[in-house]
Design a protein that fits this description.
This protein has 254 residues and is an alpha+beta fold. It is built from twelve helices and five strands.
Length: 254
């Protein structure tokens, strides 16, 4: 919220608290004398009651948060099929789970790495969670290379191989050079040369392009970002908090 917005909010709040005869004035038709008197009255009130400014800001921020949440709900509803069943993203956890958690992630993202044990804990404690991983490389060329390698692995070797590479890349600390990726693949008993050769295949590019387009539609610009059932969560959340969210969603369903 910028300074002008804060000032407007505080002034509006202060005006509502002024005595009724002054507040009842037609502001559009005031003469200069009345307008000066009105302005002085508002200023005097705010100087005597500075806490009003913060109260007004809090009200405005609450209204903005509610508006943002309503907008996010509408966006998720519009794109729910692409989020949960795009046909190309890896699906883990319980494929038949009653709650779908979608994660937009980047292998170079520190918070994505911190989220790894939290997601594992979520899936361990709640066996009815379906997890969808969206490859969303936004942190430079190394992110893109890693995402392409992971998607190519899935396309060539299947879901189990993807999961192994996905986990390995999230703990990988070096640069994703061809040599390093080939060594990583060999350590998992995968054909590194074949995966490297498939990284620039059209279907790999299409998967990344579609995920980026979806993120743009949802105004997602950071990682990790989650969609828990129909709730958009911008950022990292510990497993216990996500478990609470899941419980609330189930309770709301009745």
């Amino acid at each position: 919220m910028n300074a002008r917005t804060r000032l407007a909010a505080s002034a509006a709040f202060g005006l509502s608290l002024l005595s009724s005869p002054l507040a009842a004035l037609d502001l559009d038709n005031m003469n200069s004398k009345d307008r000066d008197a009105f302005g002085q009255a508002v200023r005097a009130y705010l100087l005597e009651n500075p806490e009003v400014i913060m109260e007004a800001v809090a009200v405005l921020e609450q209204r903005q948060a509610a508006a943002d949440a309503a907008r996010d709900d509408a966006l998720v509803e519009t794109y729910i099929a692409e989020l949960q069943n795009d046909g190309y993203s890896w699906v883990g956890g319980n494929p038949d789970g009653d709650i779908t958690v979608v994660e937009f992630m980047d292998y170079r993202c520190g918070y994505c790495r911190r989220a790894v044990p939290e997601i594992a804990k979520l899936l361990e404690k709640d066996g009815n969670i379906r997890l969808v991983v969206k490859e969303f490389p936004i942190l430079g060329e190394a992110s893109m290379v890693a995402a392409r390698f992971a998607i190519a692995t899935k396309n060539l070797a299947g879901d189990d191989a993807y999961k192994a590479v996905h986990d390995a890349l999230l703990s990988f600390s070096g640069e994703p050079t061809d040599v390093a990726l080939r060594r990583l693949a060999e350590g998992l008993e995968l054909d590194g040369d074949a995966i490297l050769a498939a990284m620039n295949a059209p279907e790999v590019t299409e998967a990344i392009t579609r995920t980026r387009a979806l993120a743009q539609q949802l105004s997602i610009s950071g990682t990790p970002s989650f969609v828990v059932d129909t709730e958009l969560l911008r950022g990292y959340l510990p497993a216990d908090a996500m478990l609470d969210m899941v419980a609330e969603i189930r309770a709301a369903r009745g």
